[in-house]
Amino acid sequence: MSAQDGQPAGPPQPGVAQRRGSFWRDLKVVWAERDFRRLLSTRLISQTGDGVFTAGLGTYVFFNAATFPSPAKGAAAFAVLYAPYSLIGPFAGVFIDRWSRRQILVYSALLRTVFVVLTAAVMVAGNQGAPLYVAVLLALGVNRFFLSSLSAALPHTVPPDKLVMANSVSPTAGGIMSFVGGLVGLGVNVGTGDTERGAAITLLVAGGCYVCSSLVARTMPRNLLGPVRDPGQAPPGRLLNELGVVLQGLAAGARYIARRREPAAALGATGGNRLFYGVLFLMSILLYRNYFYHSTVTTAEGHYGTLVAVVAIGYGVAALVTPQVTRRLTKPAFMAVMLAVSAILVGGLGSTFDQIAYLVMGFFLGLAGQCIAICSATILQEQLADDYRGRAFSFYDMTFNITFVVGALISAQFMPTTGKSPALVAVVAAGFAVVAVAFWLAVRHSAGSGSWPAGLSGSGGGTASPADAAQASSS
């Protein structure tokens, strides 16, 4: 049954027809799905809190008037922020494929609130050492279950023929709200004087968002979001028994994905994009804090907020662009184009170290990165069975975040304190180009085995593009 019938939708099938029409008409149709509205609202509120939390922590660490961040300190902070996604992600997926995803959303949001309050208390004490990092790791570790559950649950709230649009609207809108939350967090922090107390207050605002998110998740039926169980299938066992099958389940999930060239290539392209984005992200913080505005931390924070807002706009535009373009190009072809565009932009604008040029580059990198993410997530949802989706999105999140951290850690060894490094910019531009070519060759090879259309227009057999499916259904 479809989500319209009040039951979880099954895994989307390749070649399902996509209706031609404007983004807004499609958005209206998807928004009409009550279950999708509730799941999206849960995501939006929570990710607003994520943005507030990140802004409070980031200003406490990077834009503290008493200290100047170094590349090593920045990379270490990234590792703390993103390590839970890398270490917990694969293990979370096994449980997400066994536990009620609705219950995970409800209780993980409440548990995060507890850890956020703990982090705020550590901040008030003025601690930037191990206690702060432990509290942050706890808060973000729980968040891994929450976000992976959202991705795995999405196909249960929309009909299969609206999955591309749902993937455009849901994570993109969540990312936009995360950016909005970040700007709100920056405003709260500035309003409270860029102090430890102000950072703690900012985190408490994030905690309030998590409580509201839990309440919205409770409005959905417990079994709505899966996982789907066959008739007569035994329920999951106790926690200790579940722990015994974690590694076995991970190995099975890895083998399952590895046998499917297009999903595996999509994961690789996502990781490559994030690897080089991590270098640029660390560089941008150092440039704004230590190079552009060395002596005025409040001005640096304000202008960096402008850059964040511009990236957010690009991120949001991806929701408009991706559904339209993937009616004409295959999703793998569009991903390869976006990677190539990133290479050209970084090569042309990155070495200028001009703030206007960096705003332009930030917009297009936000656009390209989210277009790649939408296409990659849709490929995983379309081509993987439901009982593997939790593990697939845990691997996806691990790839998304660990490569980001690796990029920052490696570049920190060569990056000056000011962040100004023409050599690193050139390496990043070349890196984007290499990933684009490698991904294109991988999916072209896949096309030869009939798993996706060989032509840019999506013609030729295998998994049909949205445009092809729409044309076929009308003929």
Q: Any overview of this molecule?
A:
There is one protein chain. The protein is mainly alpha-helical and 475 residues long. It has one domain: MFS general substrate transporter like domains (Growth Hormone, Chain: A), CATH 1.20.1250.20. The chain has 17 helices and no strands. The N terminus and C terminus are likely disordered.
The gyration radius over C-alpha positions equals 22 Å
CATH topology: Growth Hormone, Chain: A
- Going by helix content, strand content and strand pairing, the class is mainly alpha
Order of helices and strands: HHHHHHHHHHHHHHHHH
Q: What's the number of structural domains?
A: 1
Distance between the termini: 26 Å
Biggest sheet character:
none
Number of helices: 17
CATH architecture: Up-down Bundle
For the record, the CATH class is Mainly Alpha
**Kindly state the mean pLDDT as a whole number?**
81
CATH superfamily assignment? MFS general substrate transporter like domains
Q: What share of the residues does DSSP label as strand, in percent?
A: under 5%
Record field, number of beta strands: 0
Name the helicity range: over 70%
Extract low-pLDDT stretches.
Answer: 1-23, 448-475
What form results from the Cα inertia axes? globular
